[in-house]
Write a structure and sequence with these properties.
The structure holds 2 protein chains of 2 kinds. Chain A is α+β, with helices and mostly antiparallel strands. Chain A has helices at 27-34, 90-97, 107-120, 126-132, 144-154; strands spanning 5-12, 15-22, 53-56, 59-62, 75-77. The chains are: A alpha+beta, B alpha+beta.
C-alpha cells in the first residue's frame, strides 16, 4: 500500500519550508532523512534518551515521538539553527569552555533542552537546570560539567 | 614580544573535537551520506543454543528491493573473530550459542526492505540444551564450544595462605555477586562501507580500535591487508563494548561482493541484544587479619559468566585476579579466577575489566574487618595500603608513583572539612569508603602504540595516531603532549586519527592506556621530529644543536632566549634540499608475562590509585537510596588536561552509581532503554574531585591514566555507606530497591 503524502508548511531554523512528506514519518525522520540535517541524533526511537531533542514552538520535544505532519504551521529549531562557527550561541561557547562535551552524541539534544530553559528563565537555579535536562541522558560526562556550563550562562560568567 | 602558545600539558583547554560537536557538524557513522547507498539488516537467532540444520533464503531473495542475502557460506576467509581467542563466527555456521547470534544479512535499497527480507529467511534448528549458569557449565556434559566450557583460568599464588590464616586473629568469609551490565553508550553501533579511490574495501565505523577491525576484516575476507581500509568514525561512547567487531565484518562482506556503499545502523534494541555485556562474577573471599589490623592472608575464588563467546573474557579473568587483593600489601595470597561459557549474551570488556567487581568485594571485606577489629575504616586502609616499595600479589615491587595513601589522606581531609550529613526524620544516612588500584594497559602482554609526527614544506605540523577518541578525550590529550614537546600551540597541530591507511597502529582504546602508552609514542615521535628540526637549524645557523631550543613555534638560543629562526624557515630550507621532516615514535610498556602456574610477574608498568567517599541517604520504607555526594581523589601521575580528568571522574562516579544501585541487564527481559535505566542528572551525586599527581617517571610528562579508575571506587563506597546506614550489608549488585528493602527487613527483624 503506497504511503499517503501530505503537504506541510513550517519554519525550520528561521527558514520557511513547504513540502510534501510521507504522512507516517516522525519529525526525526523528517529532519534527518528528508531535510538531511544530521545534527539531531537517534539514540533509542522510544523517547527515553533525549538525543533527538529539538524545539517545537520553543518547547523541547523528542523528535522520535512526534509525527512529522504535526509540524504544520509551527516552528522547529534544531542544533543547526542555534549558532554557527564564529558566532556561537552562548551555550555552545559555555559547553566548549567548561568541558561539557565528551562523545558529543547527547550534546545537540542537551543544548536544545538548555536553550529552552534559558529562553524562558534567564536565571534558573541549579535544581531548575537539572530538571530541564533530566530527560536527556548522557553516559560520558556524569552531567557535572554540563550543569556547570549552563549555570555559567545564568550567572553571566565570561570566559 | 612573542605570543605564549596555548595548549601545553597541564592546561584545561577545550577539546580539539568539541567545536564540531556543539555545532551538530560532527559526522557519526549514521550521519554519513553516499551516492547509491544500500542498507543492511541482520537476522539474529531466537534460540539460546541450537544446531543449524538449514538456512533458506530463496523467498527473501525475491522480496522487493533486495539486492542480496548473505550467510556463512559467502564468507571467503576465516569465519571466526575475537580479540583474544577466535571463537566468534562472523555469521553462525554450525550452531547458534545465544539469543542474538548473527545468522544472515540482507542488503536492500531501503532499510525497511532489508528488514522485511530478514523476516522471510527461514532457519531450521535442532535445539540443544541451553546452559545459563557458569557453575552448571563447568559440570555439564553439554559443550557450548568444542574445546569445553571453561574459557580460562588464572591462578595467583604468593606465600603460604594457610600459614597466613593460622597467624590471623580474625578470618572472615563472604560471597559477593554482581550482575550483567549493558554499556549503553548513547550512539548505537553503526558503520558505512564502500570502495575507496584506491579500490580498497573501506569500512568507517563506530569503534574503539580501527586497526583490530582491519585485521578481522582482512582475515574474514582472505584479502591482502593492503586491500582493506578501516576508519574510525566519530564515536558516541564505547566503554569497552566497541572493542569487539560489531558491524565491520558484515559491511565488508557485502561490499566485497556488491562493490557498492552499504550502511548498517543498529537499533537500540539490536545494540542491547547483540553486543557485549559486563561479566557477572561470583566472588568468594576469605580474608585473615592480625589483631593490629595487618592483612595476613586472602583466599579468593572468582567465577565469571562469559556468555556465548570469549571476547575479552580472558583479560577480565586475568585482570580481576591480579587486582583481587585491592591496593593492599598481603603476604599470603591464593587466587583462582575462571571464566565459563554459557548461552547468555557474550560478555566482554567494560570500563574496568573485572576490577569494579572485585573492588566491591575487597572493599566490603575491608569494612567488615574494620568493624570486627573496632578500627576506623580509613585507618585499616592506610595501614595496609600500597606505598613505594610495596610488593603486590604477583610479586611486583611498586617503585614509583604510588599515590594510594595520598588519595586516602586527601579524601579524609576534604570530608572532615565538609559539613556532616544529618539525617532527616524517617531517613537513614551512612558514609562509606572505596579504594582501588588499576594497572594501566593490557595484563602481562605486549601492547605497544606507535605514532608519527610530520612538518610539511609549509611548516605545518601533523600528528598521526591510530588512537580512537571515543569521547574520552585522547585526541586532545595527545595533541597537548605533542604541543608541549614541540613547543608549538594546540591550534598549530593538525591531528589525523584512526585510519589504517594513514595512521600507525596505536592499539585499542581500552585499559586506560592511551594517555600513558600512546602518549609516550606521541612524545617520542614529536621529540624525534624536534631533534631533526634543531639539527637542521643548527646546520644553517652554524650553532651547535645543544645550544638551541624550540619554544612558541620559534627556534631560540638556549643561552639568552634570542629568537634565531622560525619553524617555517627551517622547514622551507629543509624541504628545498629534498629533506623530509617526519619522525616515528613507539612505546610498549615494560611488563613480563605472568607465570602460568603461580601468576607471578610484572603485569603492568604502572598503576593508577584512587579513593572515593560516598554519603548516602536511605528511605527504609521504599528502599530508595539517594547518593548525596562523592569525594573522589585520583592519582593520575600528571593531569595533562585537568578539566578532562574532572570530566572522567564525574563520568565514573555516575556510571559507578548506576552499577551500585540501578543497572542489571536480564537476558531475555531487558530489551530496550525502557527496561534498562542508567543515571539521569537527578540520580548523580554532587561530585568533589581531587586530582593527586604522584608523577610516573615512565609516563609522558609523568601521566598515567584515569578512564576506568574513575568508575571503580564508587560502587564500593556506596555499598559501604549503605551498610553503615542500614546496619545490614548487601552482597549482590545492584543494590536495587528490592535488595535494599530486604536488607531493611533483615535489620528490623534482628
Amino acid at each position: 500500500m503506497p504511503v499517503q503524502k501530505i503537504r506541510v508548511r513550517f519554519r525550520m531554523n528561521g527558514q520557511e519550508h513547504e513540502q510534501e512528506i510521507p504522512s507516517n514519518i516522525t519529525l526525526l525522520e523528517l529532519i534527518r532523512d528528508e531535510l538531511g540535517l544530521t545534527g539531531t541524533k537517534e539514540g533509542c526511537e522510544i523517547g527515553e534518551c533525549g538525543a533527538c531533542t529539538v524545539l517545537l514552538d520553543g518547547k523541547p520535544v523528542y523528535a522520535c515521538l512526534i509525527l512529522a505532519p504535526k509540524v504544520d504551521g509551527r516552528e522547529v529549531i534544531t542544533i543547526e539553527g542555534i549558532g554557527e562557527e564564529g558566532k556561537l550561541h552562548p551555550l555552545q561557547e559555555a559547553f566548549l569552555t567548561h568541558g561539557a562535551v565528551q562523545c558529543g552524541f547527547c550534546t545537540p539534544g542537551m543544548l536544545l533542552s538548555a536553550k529552552a530553559l534559558l529562553d524562558k528563565n534567564s536565571h534558573p537555579s541549579r535544581e531548575e537546570i537539572e530538571e530541564a535536562i533530566s530527560g536527556n541522558l548522557c553516559r560520558c560526562t556524569g552531567y557535572l560539567q554540563i550543569v556547570n556550563a549552563i549555570e555559567a550562562i545564568r550567572s553571566g560568567e565570561k570566559e | 614580544m612573542t605570543m605564549v602558545v596555548k595548549g601545553k600539558v597541564g592546561e584545561s583547554i577545550p577539546r580539539v573535537d568539541a567545536l564540531d560537536k556543539v555545532l551538530g557538524k560532527a559526522r557519526f557513522a549514521a550521519d554519513l551520506k553516499m551516492e547509491g547507498l544500500l542498507y543492511m539488516k541482520v537476522l539474529r537467532s531466537d534460540r539460546p543454543h541450537a544446531r543449524i540444520k538449514d538456512i533458506r533464503t530463496e523467498k527473501a531473495e525475491q522480496m522487493p528491493g533486495v539486492v542480496r542475502i548473505f550467510t556463512h557460506k559467502d564468507i571467503p576467509g576465516k569465519n571466526r573473530t575475537g580479540i583474544i581467542n577466535k571463537d566468534h563466527p562472523v555469521l553462525a555456521d554450525e550452531k547458534v550459542r545465544f539469543i542474538g547470534d548473527a545468522i544472515a544479512l540482507a542488503v536492500a535499497h531501503t532499510e525497511k526492505q532489508a528488514e522485511q527480507a530478514i523476516g522471510e529467511i527461514r532457519v531450521e534448528y535442532e535445539d540443544l540444551p541451553p546452559i545459563f549458569d557458569p557453575q552448571e557449565a563447568l559440570r555439564s556434559a553439554t559443550l557450548i564450544h568444542e574445546k569445553g566450557n571453561l574459557l580460562y583460568e588464572r591462578d595467583i599464588t604468593k606465600g603460604d595462605v594457610e600459614q597466613g590464616f593460622a597467624e590471623s586473629d580474625i578470618v572472615i568469609q563472604r560471597t559477593y555477586l554482581t550482575s550483567m551490565v549493558e554499556h549503553t553508550y548513547l550512539e548505537p553501533d553503526a558503520g558505512v562501507a564502500w570502495i575507496d579511490d584506491e579500490g580498497r574495501i573501506t569500512v568507517c565505523a563506530s569503534t574503539q580500535n580501527p586497526h583490530y577491525d582491519h585485521h578481522e576484516i582482512v582475515t574474514s575476507l582472505a584479502l591482502d591487508p593492503s586491500q582493506v581500509r578501516s576508519i574510525q568514525a566519530t564515536t558516541g561512547g564505547g566503554f569497552g563494548s566497541k572493542l569487539d567487531v560489531t558491524v565491520q565484518c558484515f559491511l565488508a562482506l557485502a561490499v566485497y561482493y556488491l562493490r557498492r556503499p552499504v550502511r548498517l545502523v543498529y537499533t537500540r534494541e539490536e545494540a542491547y541484544l547483540a553486543t557485549a555485556k559486563r561479566h557477572p562474577l561470583i566472588m568468594k573471599y576469605r580474608t585473615g587479619v592480625h589483631r593490629d589490623g595487618r592483612l595476613m592472608a586472602m583466599d579468593i575464588d572468582i567465577l565469571g559468566d562469559t556468555g556465548a563467546y570469549g571476547s575479552y573474557g580472558i583479560a577480565v579473568a586475568g585482570r580481576a585476579a591480579v587486582h583481587a587483593t585491592g591496593p593492599y600489601r598481603v603476604p599470603n595470597v591464593l587466587v583462582r579466577s575462571r571464566m565459563a561459557y554459557t548461552n547468555h549474551p557474550f560478555c566482554g570488556a567494560m570500563r574496568g575489566f573485572g576490577v569494579p567487581q572485585v573492588a566491591f568485594a575487597h572493599e566490603s571485606q575491608m569494612d567488615i574487618l574494620a568493624e570486627e577489629l573496632g578500627m576506623d575504616p580509613f585507618e585499616i586502609r592506610l595501614l595496609n595500603a600500597f606505598d613505594r616499595g610495596s610488593e603486590t600479589a604477583t610479586g611486583q615491587i611498586l617503585k614509583e608513583s604510588v599515590g594510594m595513601r595520598e588519595c586516602l589522606r586527601r579524601v579524609r581531609k576534604q570530608r572532615d572539612e565538609m559539613q556532616k550529613v544529618s539525617a532527616i526524620p524517617g531517613k537513614l544516612v551512612g558514609m562509606g569508603i572505596g579504594a582501588m588500584w588499576y594497572g594501566i594497559g593490557n595484563t602481562g602482554v605486549k601492547n605497544p602504540s606507535s605514532a608519527c609526527a610530520e612538518l610539511d614544506h609549509e611548516g605545518r605540523f601533523t600528528l598521526y595516531t591510530g588512537a580512537a577518541d571515543i569521547g574520552q578525550g585522547s585526541s586532545t590529550v595527545l595533541s597537548q603532549i605533542a604541543a608541549s614537546e614541540m613547543g608549538i600551540g594546540i591550534e598549530d597541530i593538525r591531528l589525523i586519527r584512526g585510519d589504517t591507511a594513514l595512521t600507525p597502529d596505536a592499539g585499542a582504546t581500552s585499559a586506560s592506556r592511551q594517555t600513558y602508552i600512546s602518549g609516550n609514542a606521541v612524545r617520542e615521535a614529536t621529540g624525534n621530529l624536534r631533534k631533526s628540526v634543531l639539527a637542521e637549524a643548527s646546520r644553517f645557523l652554524e650553532i651547535p644543536p645543544q645550544e638551541l631550543t624550540m619554544e612558541d613555534g620559534l627556534v631560540k638560543s638556549m643561552k639568552d632566549g634570542e629568537i634565531l629562526t622560525t619553524l617555517e624557515e627551517v622547514t622551507a630550507r629543509s624541504y628545498s634540499e629534498g629533506k623530509q621532516l617526519r619522525a616515528e615514535g613507539f612505546f610498549d610498556p615494560p611488563t613480563t608475562n605472568l607465570n602460568p602456574e603461580t601468576g607471578q610477574g610484572i603485569p603492568y608498568a604502572t598503576y593508577a590509585f584512587a579513593c572515593h567517599v560516598a554519603d548516602v541517604q536511605v528511605d527504609p520504607n521504599t528502599g530508595e537510596v539517594d547518593v548525596l555526594r562523592v569525594v573522589a581523589a585520583h592519582d593520575v601521575g600528571k593531569a595533562v588536561n585537568p578539566s578532562n580528568v574532572v570530566g572522567q571522574i564525574a563520568s565514573g562516579v555516575a556510571m559507578g552509581t548506576g552499577f551500585a544501585l540501578m543497572e542489571e541487564f536480564v537476558p531475555g527481559q531487558t530489551r530496550s532503554m525502557r527496561q534498562y535505566l542508567i543515571p539521569t542528572v537527578k540520580d548523580v551525586p554532587v561530585v568533589i574531585p581531587i586530582i593527586v599527581e604522584d608523577p610516573e617517571p615512565t609516563g609522558p610528562f609523568g601521566a598515567k591514566g584515569v578512564g576506568e579508575p574513575a568508575l571503580i571506587p564508587t560502587a564500593p563506597a556506596i555499598l559501604n555507606a549503605l551498610a553503615q546506614a542500614l546496619g545490614e550489608r548487601i552482597y549482590h549488585l545492584p543494590a536495587s530497591l528490592e535488595r535494599v528493602l530486604k536488607a531493611c527487613r533483615r535489620e528490623g527483624s534482628s
